[in-house]
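Retro notes (design track)

What went well: tokenization of the new backbones is finally stable.
What didn't: we kept losing track of which sequence belonged to which structure.
Fix going forward: every design gets posted as structure first, then sequence, in one message. First example under the new rule, 96 residues:
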């Protein structure tokens, strides 16, 4: 599927590309948030960012615990159980 050109929003996102700010894209359902992020991903690849450096996750297709562990792996944070036994899957996890 071809992405709709969102030049105005993409330029805004690119303008913050190398800043320490956390970028948050919000909007109503089906307004093009995911498409905008795909365009940004394309922009990064075209400008020399290796595919291995780009992390993309679809949270709609994952449960919350899977999302949590996926994010932990991305940022390489240690995780420890805060309830349950060491050999059982914890119900809740925390960052030490």
């Amino acid at each position: 599927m071809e992405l709709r050109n969102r030049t105005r929003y993409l330029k805004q996102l690119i303008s913050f590309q190398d800043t320490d700010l956390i970028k948050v894209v919000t909007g109503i359902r089906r307004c093009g948030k995911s498409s905008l992020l795909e365009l940004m991903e394309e922009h990064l690849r075209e400008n020399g960012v290796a595919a291995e450096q780009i992390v993309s996750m679809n949270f709609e297709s994952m449960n919350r615990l899977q999302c949590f562990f996926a994010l932990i792996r991305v940022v390489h944070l240690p995780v420890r159980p805060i309830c349950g036994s060491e050999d059982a899957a914890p119900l809740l996890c925390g960052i030490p």
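Added context from the reviewer: DSSP finds three helices and two strands in the chain.
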